[in-house]
Amino acid sequence: MTDHARTVRSFTGVYHADGGIRGELSYVVGKLLGRTHCGLCDITHGPLRRKRQWDGFVARLGVSFHLVHLDERDSTISDVSQGNTPCVVAHTDAGPVLVMNPHQVDAANGDVATFADLLRQALTQHALDLPALTARTRVVSDGGSDLRRNL
């Protein structure tokens, strides 16, 4: 029997940057000057756009993965992530759980496959599971990462 309180319904990744034109420009300038860093930005985006590897990872994950900037957080995500960005929050029936802190996100060094491995480890450490696989979905190995893929 599955403990639904321990099942992840979705994720929210919180960037360590504000959104909008002003926030994006501020981040780019800060990054170029070496004053700003966001490990989650490095994982999800290349120099000009979102990484295809990220989109593939999310498509195979089996649950939604929302990405928000600091100024786009709702009160619940703000409370959980305050002072801990970038980060990843898992949403469960029992409430939100901070599953990856800035150090864990940074440990991926901008690599999507490494991030997938670290997320899997974080879920294990927090005793969280993704929803049961359906007949149309299975777990496959992709560079050492357990990811979901539609058949």
Describe the structure.
- The chain is an alpha+beta fold and 151 residues long.
- 36% of the residues lie in helices and 24% in strands.
- It has 6 helices and 6 strands, in the order E-H-H-H-E-H-E-E-H-H-E-E.
- A hairpin with a 2-residue loop joins strand 3 and strand 4.
- About 9% of the residues have low confidence.
Task: Detail the topology: elements first, then pairings.
Blueprint lengths: L7 E7 L5 H13 L6 H6 L7 H10 L2 E5 L6 H7 L5 E6 L2 E6 L1 H5 L5 H14 L11 E6 L2 E6 L1
Parallel strand pairs: 1-2
Antiparallel strand pairs: 1-3, 3-4, 5-6
Task: Give the CA-based shape.
Answer: globular
Distance between the termini: 25 Å
According to DSSP, the number of beta strands is: 6
User: How much helicity do the residues have?
Assistant: 25-40%
Proportion of residues in β-strands: 15-25%
CA gyration radius, whole angstroms: 15 Å
Strand order of the largest sheet: 2-1-3-4
Alpha-beta content class: alpha+beta
Residue-averaged pLDDT: 86
Detail the poorly predicted runs: 134-146
Count, helices: 6
Element pattern in H and E: EHHHEHEEHHEE
The main pleated sheet reads as: 4 strands, mixed
Give me a quick take on this structure.
With 151 residues, the protein is an alpha+beta fold. It has helices at 20-32, 39-44, 52-61, 75-81, 102-106, 112-125, and strands at 8-14, 64-68, 87-92, 95-100, 137-142, 145-150.
